[in-house]
Design a protein that fits this description.
469 residues
Length: 469
């Protein structure tokens, strides 16, 4: 159906290549299982994810869609069985005096009936069985969509969580910068007051401090928005939810990426696309059954009497039974056009499946490249930060001894701040990229968790409907 997957991912780091602090897991850990977020070893993240799995409202919507799809299976399957109805009735009537040949008033009459009706359409050509299979496949699609949405919500929460931690780390950087700038301002003011420094140095130091304070305040905007987003994901009113301040200190864990051929079994969106294709293929068979006649077996029987006293007497019985056959002779080519329509739908679904598979491999390769390259960049940026700190120390010493003007110190401080900000942002990016990689790999899901056609056909229990309540 699709191009054969490669033997290995192109963007995965080679065993002997430097990839910063990140590496792939050993081959024996080829797949993540279950609660994939626990790989980060963060108890706060674990608690939020567990709450999301219970209280996320979007997941609840998809769960109800799955319950609806299972109910549709039962609805379609009911056509395999006879339909029996019971319609008791009582009629009191009087004929018109002018309706008959004789004159005079007509007698009134009563009719009490207890009829039973039964009809059954044998599935001679497999139409109903095909419709049942189609409904089962659609229910599997709904189940896969549920798991895909669950994974998406889980990944979004983890990304927002690390974004908050990144904002906390940036705030720590700027808090330290504000403290350092305040010391520099105090120093330049002291030198100016003793006649050693200049007023412009004081103004420059003051401006540097004010800019850092302004950026520090602005960082609260993004943090608040990420916090509110997590609240909504966990089904909590943002007004009553908060995430404690704690700077990001984690590094991306060793993620088991497995081999490309496993990806087809690990992603719920690929499973959903494949089931859509199977459903469309079954619909073609349903369309072809319209070319064959329909046989209906019907029967009627019961009791009928003018008085309740004799309703249950043996002579009050009545019955009728007989088959009927229906065959469309001419509809202007409707059946053939319908079959061609479903064939085109199937071909489109095949192409959509292939596109889904290609997009899945792209997302994995993108995330692998991001984690690998960002990890390498972090190592380089750490060296740049150390160099910038050395420049600040040297320029500060030269300024204090009167060799260089204060503007040189400001320039060095701005470079150091930019390097620290870049390094902190890179740490945040590599963590969110690792989450994106896990999501691209399908999280802890695999195709064995997809319910079988038999499982989606079983009767829905009250316990199942209460899972997401």
């Amino acid at each position: 159906m699709a191009q054969a997957p490669p033997a290995a991912y192109k963007e995965a780091p080679a065993p002997d290549a430097a990839a910063g602090d990140w590496k792939v897991a050993l081959p024996q850990d080829a797949m993540l299982h279950g609660k994939w977020w626990e790989i980060y070893n963060d108890t706060e993240l674990n608690g939020l994810e567990d709450k999301l799995n219970i209280d996320n409202l979007t997941i609840k919507v998809y769960f109800e869609n799955f319950m609806q799809a299972r109910a549709i299976v039962a609805e379609v399957r009911s056509q395999l069985f006879p339909t029996v109805s019971f319609g008791p009735s009582f009629t009191r009537s009087q004929a018109s005096a002018n309706s008959g040949g004789s004159s005079g008033p007509k007698a009134q009459s009563n009719l009490i009936a207890l009829p039973f009706n039964a009809s059954w359409e044998p599935d001679l050509w497999g139409r109903i069985h095909s419709q049942v299979r189609e409904a089962q496949y659609n229910a599997q699609v709904s189940a896969a969509d549920l798991e895909n949405e669950r994974l998406s919500e889980q990944a979004s929460l983890a990304e927002f969580f690390f974004e908050i931690r990144g904002q906390d780390a940036l705030m720590a950087v700027y808090q330290q910068t504000v403290a350092d700038d305040q010391k520099s301002l105090d120093l330049t003011r002291s030198q100016y007051e003793t006649g050693v420094g200049t007023q412009i140095a004081v103004v420059e130091a003051q401006n540097t401090l004010q800019n850092a304070q302004s950026v520090l305040i602005n960082l609260g905007v993004a943090r608040a928005q990420y916090e509110h987003a997590i609240a909504v994901l966990t089904g909590v009113d943002p007004s009553s939810f908060s995430v404690p301040v704690r700077a990001l200190s984690a590094i991306p864990p060793a993620i088991p990426i497995g081999v490309p051929s496993q990806l087809l079994e690990r992603r719920p969106d690929i499973a959903a696309s494949e089931r859509v294709m199977a459903s469309a293929n079954t619909a073609i068979g349903v369309a072809h059954t319209a070319f064959f006649p329909t046989l209906t077996l019907s029967a009627q029987g019961g009791l009928e009497s003018s008085t309740l006293m004799h309703l249950f007497d043996w002579p009050s019985r009545f019955w009728s039974v007989g088959p009927s056959l229906s065959q469309v002779i001419y509809q202007g080519g409707l059946q053939r056009a319908t079959a061609m329509q479903y064939a085109a739908i199937y071909n489109g679904d095949v192409d959509s499946y292939r596109q889904t598979v290609l997009s899945a491999f792209q997302q994995v390769e993108d995330a692998l490249a991001a984690v690998r390259i960002l990890s390498q960049q972090i190592q380089q940026q750490e060296q740049a930060e150390k160099s910038a700190q050395q420049v600040v120390d040297l320029e500060t010493a030269r300024y204090e001894t009167g060799v260089d003007p204060y503007i040189n110190v400001v320039t060095a401080q701005n470079t150091l701040l930019a390097d620290r900000q870049t390094l902190t942002t890179l740490h945040t990016q590599v963590m969110t990229a690792s989450v994106q990689l896990i999501e691209a790999l399908g999280g802890g899901w695999d195709s064995t968790q997809l319910p079988t056609p038999q499982q989606v056909t079983t009767k829905i229990t009250p316990a199942e409907t209460a899972i997401q309540r």
